[in-house]
Description:
By secondary structure, the chain is an alpha/beta fold. The chain has helices spanning 52-56, 98-114, 131-138, 195-206, 221-227, 243-252, 290-320, 332-341, 375-378, 391-400, and strands spanning 16-17, 20-21, 32-42, 60-68, 74-76, 121-125, 143-147, 164-167, 182-186, 213-219, 239-240, 255-263, 268-275, 325-328, 349-351, 369-370, 382-385, 406-409. The protein is globular, with a radius of gyration of 21 Å.
Amino acid sequence: MTHSTDTISALKSGPKTExxxxxxxxxxxxxxxxxxxxxxxxxxxxxxxxxxxxALGYPQRDLKLGFCSSCGxxxxxxxxxxxxxxxxxxxESQGFxxxxxxxxxxxxxxxxxxxxxxxxxxxxxxxxxxxFLAMMVESGMAKGIGIDPAYxxxxxxxxxxxxxxxxxxxxxxxxxxxxxxxxxCRHTLEHISPTSAFMRMVSxxxxxQTETVLLFxxxxxxxxxxxxxxxxxxxxxxSYFTTGSLARLFRRHGFRPVELDLEYxxxxxxxxxxxxxxxxxxxxxxxxxxxxxxxxVKRFKEKFQKLRSDWISKVDAFKAExxxxxxxxxxxxxxxxxxxxxxKDQIDFVVDINPHKHGKFIPGTGHEVRDPETLRVEKPDCVxxxxxxxxxxxxxxxxxxxxxxxxLPV
Length: 410
């Protein structure tokens, strides 16, 4: 998922060689060893294009994932932050899905309750369209401050509007003076290459406020490695974490993890931490994962090659049989799935429930994104679902249109 935006793209990601960045920007001591590479993929996957020609001609770059055996961090070694266009044109919101909205609200309510945040202030770095921050304030917080260049004021409808403040900008040293009782960062850290440098800014932001809690959420790369889920690897995501590598980053910058869980069908990591005051604390469940992650990295290439071959054979067979195939979900997963497989006319079009995507085109492949209601007329034989967590929601929507295509979750 690409929910928020790169907050410190101006920070340097370290010295480069002909192999790209070889030092680990997460532990700043290990070395990255390449294990997966994809050539010429779109540099944006949430910036949909106004025409097919724009989509086909959109800038592309290479992706080369490197693994740090010292801390378990995974990074795009050839990432170039200067190509990004984070702005109000980005369409990263998943708030149109009842499934996702229910999850986000439940998480907001839990965090407010468990970390005693009622009547207090939250700062969200990379707040996207502001929906989650609004949920936290609606759950009892007194004030919310959100920072994100993609925020659009007219898109947010909340009874807590008078308690919210938004800054349409990238987070950097200028904003480390903003003080809050909770610093949230959801689906943003994976967009940042110099992760250790980012955490130093967060530490500076908190300063001596020992009661301030850090609340982060981001994708779990261990699942991606284990399932060879290549559709969850794309250009904007330059940094990939497991529970262990994320907890190690927290500890390295003086934060003691008190929560380390997997949420949303085990797709997302949630972590909470407090300043540790220089006092050591025992590891919690999920931190000691370096051996298992290393093993999955070694197996990834072979599993990916087989899965890629299987998917290409499957969609080619559908085409040969005259079946109509669509992709459900016009976000980052679809961009990666289509471009990595090199799919063209095997896929008729893409559908998405987000109305702001309708009539736009997928960068790299040029597939049009349409309203799911068009399926009433188009009547697909197969629907490739880009996230299995939405299978029940999508099945019910299709049944409501009198359709019963084969649904293939990735």
